[in-house]
Structure prediction request, 71 residues.
Amino acid sequence: SGAIEGTPVSVNSDGKPHNLAVSADGDELILTHSGPTARRASIFSLAGGTPTHVADIDSGTNPFGLVTFAR
Prediction:
């Protein structure tokens, strides 16, 4: 499980939360999970002020680094 500063967020992860990125519009937070078997990036909605877990993406083994861009 992970936490975002002062707001408990339940995340079923296979590693510790590591890298963070926020979308240009501030509506989404993306984080990677770090560890030798970690294979996920998690997406959270920031709408309404409380982070809400939206999805996990299989990112390959031990993802490192994030970048966001506006379309």
Remarks:
- The radius of gyration is 12 Å.
